[in-house]
Amino acid sequence: MSEAHTTNYWEAPEPFDPPLTMFKKAMVTIKEAVRIEDYASELTDLFRSTESLRGICPIHGGENRSSFAVYPDRGRWYCFRCDEGGDVLDLCQRVEGHPQLWTAMVSLAQRFGVELPRRPRSWHERQGEKAKIRERLVDTLTNSYQRKLFQVFGDLALENIEDPLEHEEEARRVFRDFRNVARVLARNRLERRRG
User: The whole model's pTM is what?
Assistant: First the structure.
């Protein structure tokens, strides 16, 4: 087995969390485009044995040339020593050490030149519009919370300041300081309403 087979081909900087329907479409696309016997033959030498292809298991290795079976008509594999089996995605995930199924999908897509389904451009444009609207809502709510916080707590922060100029300057600073708290409150409120 070559070094390329043990490498994670793509690591995302943050968790990938596609909607379930897109994830399922990607799985079906990979399973239809990548034949298990093609992928398995890159991992180990296979020979024909009645209804299956046999070889040394690419997962545990060993010397038994019949421990690993590939069933092309079913798109499945099974190792009798590991007592494991599955489809082409399971094999890729297991052999290449992918922590999540989607990284195995990306690996196979890159290796076999399969284009995974994507959302249409109009969906992405709409998400951009929704993000702008959401940000305007957050700004409006932030302004409201900032004023409310200053009304409730501003007097307490300014009660011992007697100089009018210092009082006005401190009032501005306190009002600005409430901005971050107000923004957190605004975002939390919108999240609760979405949830």
Answer: 0.56
Separation between Cα atoms, residue 94 and residue 91, nearest integer Å: 5
CA-closest candidate to residue 48, choices 32, 27, 65: 65
Beta-carbon contacts of 135 under 8 Å, excluding residues fewer than 6 positions away, are none
pLDDT tens digit string along 10-43?
444 444 555 667 788 888 999 999 999 999 999 9
**Residue 4 structure tokens:** 């390329």
Give the model confidence (pLDDT) of 41-59 as tens digits: 999 999 998 889 999 999 8
Distance CA 46, CA 165 (A): 86
User: What is the phi/psi pair of residue 137, to 5°?
Assistant: -60, -45
Q: Which two tokens stand for residue 21?
A: 């329907």
What's CA 189's distance to the chain center, in Å? 25
C-alpha R_g of the chain: 29
